[in-house]
Write a sequence for this structure.
């Protein structure tokens, strides 16, 4: 099966595609030569996709500027040019199906594919539907989604298929070597442990509250792994150079083997991006979510609220984040075993262990028809 994928700008648009590509190859449905990822030169995808050995090409396009409406004349002009570039890519590659996950680049390629009567579909990972996917919902053949609240935003009810996030299946099937807490981090594997992180670069608000909470956390009967993010690590290490925060707190820049570490954690403190939530629910990890307020349509807050409503997470809004709310939330999960077990069960109920296969089934059905 020949497939064009498109999505860009954020990991939430890229990682579901990478999970699908891995599964297509694993099942022998598509070879590497039968897969093409269409993105932009400036987006995160321009680094992630080629590094994974996936065929990659770009289209020049930009999003709408809500603060400076006059700049949108250029955006419209670029979109029209982008559809011409998309048509050439589609004619040359001859895909059996085209799938978009969001970002303006997917708008151009998926829209043009639908005009050319090529089977098309989108996947929405978040609770709040992005602008590109809302636009494309009118034109595509099928709409796959993860959260029920996202389905409510699409008027095209007959196109909807609930599949979950493909990253869920990928994180379960990854042959990750379990992290040895004692050998690799000098921690006791029999003691409850919390992982605190804000993504590969880190999150300033989470790092600030960790700095203020260190002396209190030092006294607790549990362990803490604090992944500061590569951007903040050096400054934090310098600030804590002469401070004794104990042996039960380990500070690292980032976690290279996240699938190997998560199953070893009693709970996790994190942002609430779609990819992270797919990993947590796939593995049934209890989480304390601190949504980033600096995202489009505040979708991280909506993602977190959906997990909280299902009993699969505790939620702390960034405005409410302080040493008291932070430490007491960790205490609640790590010191009350029944609470963390209930959350683990609720989280697993949200996970979709065969999400990639479900999306691929939709792709195959469209390609056949």
């Amino acid at each position: 099966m020949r497939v064009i994928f498109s999505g860009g700008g954020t990991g939430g648009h890229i990682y579901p595609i990478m999970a699908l590509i891995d599964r297509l190859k694993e099942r022998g449905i598509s070879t590497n030569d039968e897969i093409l990822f269409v993105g932009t030169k400036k987006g995160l995808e321009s680094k992630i996709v080629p590094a994974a050995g996936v065929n990659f090409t770009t289209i020049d396009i930009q999003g709408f500027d809500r603060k400076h409406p006059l700049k949108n004349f250029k955006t419209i002009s670029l979109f029209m040019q982008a559809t011409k570039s998309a048509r050439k890519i589609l004619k040359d590659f001859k895909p059996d199906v085209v799938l978009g996950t969001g970002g303006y680049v997917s708008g151009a390629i998926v829209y043009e594919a639908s005009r050319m009567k090529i089977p098309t579909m989108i996947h929405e990972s978040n609770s709040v539907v992005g602008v590109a996917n809302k636009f494309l919902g009118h034109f595509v053949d099928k709409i796959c989604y993860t959260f029920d609240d996202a389905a409510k935003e699409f008027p095209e009810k007959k196109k909807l298929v609930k599949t979950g996030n493909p990253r869920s299946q990928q994180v379960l099937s990854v042959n990750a070597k379990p992290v040895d807490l004692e050998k690799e981090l000098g921690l006791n594997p029999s003691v409850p442990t919390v992982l605190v992180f804000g993504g590969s670069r880190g999150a300033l608000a989470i790092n600030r509250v960790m700095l203020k909470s260190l002396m209190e956390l030092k006294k607790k009967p549990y362990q803490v792994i604090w992944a500061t993010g590569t951007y903040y690590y050096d400054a934090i290490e310098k600030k804590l150079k002469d401070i004794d925060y104990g042996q039960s707190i380990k500070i690292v820049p980032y976690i290279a083997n996240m699938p190997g570490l998560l199953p070893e954690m009693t709970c996790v403190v994190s942002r609430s991006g779609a990819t992270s939530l797919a990993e947590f629910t796939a593995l049934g990890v209890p989480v304390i979510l601190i949504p980033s307020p600096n995202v489009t349509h505040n979708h991280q807050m909506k993602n977190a609220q959906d997990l909280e409503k299902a009993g699969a997470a505790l939620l702390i809004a960034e405005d409410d984040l302080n040493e008291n709310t932070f430490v007491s939330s960790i205490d609640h999960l790590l010191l009350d075993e029944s609470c963390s077990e209930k959350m683990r069960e609720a989280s697993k109920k949200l996970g979709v262990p065969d999400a990639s296969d479900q999306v691929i089934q939709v792709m195959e059905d469209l390609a056949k028809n």
